[in-house]
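As a warm-up, study this chain.
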Amino acid sequence: MEQERTVVIREYDSPTEAAIVEGLLKANGIQCFLSNVHNPYPMPLGNSQINNVKLFVLEKDKDAAVALIENPPSED
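Now compare it with the structure written out below.
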């Protein structure tokens, strides 16, 4: 059985913002997960992106996930 490949589609400074986007994707049927949520360095370390929260999706869902993030459904 071949494992499905995951890709990083976004990086966030804020775990809260990342969690909101994760919820949006999951609510629309896109499997995803976050990494580096419990970073021991809450403040940015200079110009480094080492402490960013990364949002992963399955490679096959990448285009749909990016489209959803860039054009979220409006609340009626």
